[in-house]
What does this fold into?
Amino acid sequence: MSEQPFDDNVAAILEALRQAVRAQRVAQGAGETGTALSVIERELHHAAEQLEITRVVSAHWPLEGRGLYERGWVLVHKVVRRALRWYIPPVVAQQNAFNAAAARAIHLLIESHTELRDQLAELRGQAEQLTPPGTPSAVEAPHSPTAPAAPPTSAALGALVERKAVSAHQPLGADTPLAQARALAQRGMRQYLRWMLNPIVEQQNAFNDALSGAVPPLLAADSELRTRRAALCAMHYGTLSGAAGAARGLAGAPRADSSLRSE
It folds into this structure.
């Protein structure tokens, strides 16, 4: 009887942690509410959550049967799954290793973009303090001619989206009668094993969708940060140009005084 209160306490603790995480994200994005980067960051956090939810693929889904007939088939399925554990689970384990590495890479990229955003915001604040009055701000300043352009990624993104789907039903072609008989046997085997393979493929496709969905926000964040960096470089260039002009003006002032004295 003590298990139910324990489960309720765990659920309450998890809900409190979720609320704390949401509050922290809201506080982090409060400084740039409504900006393009804040919208992109919300999309990135959502993509990271989807990656974490879908990255683990399981080959051991529960098998349930209601009637005696279904329970008999469940028993057969369990025996077959146990007999194929030398074949299916190692493949799933390799896929899970890749999924974990891909999710980790996306998380690191998101953290890197967040750190770069904070560094650019700090540099922009310092540059605005040193900017003379009348100089365009970092948002209004034109792009620096030496600012790096975003790399072309539309082709790579298109290939990723095109190849993200995994299918367990590849066409089985056959030209000769023997090949047709073999294909018929393979179709029968595939039809029977769909209870085992289809859930694995569906789980992997869910992760592939989350992975391909995380790439566009990353590219958008990269483009936005490049734009802000170019504007900051342009503002810094304008500040240096103004300081150089003032220095030249001060350097020319003594020459004017000496020419007046010589007259």
About this structure: Residues 117 and 225 are 7 Å apart (CA to CA). Confidence is low (pLDDT under 50) at residues 29-34, 138-148. The radius of gyration is 31 Å. Residues 34-131+176-245 form one domain.
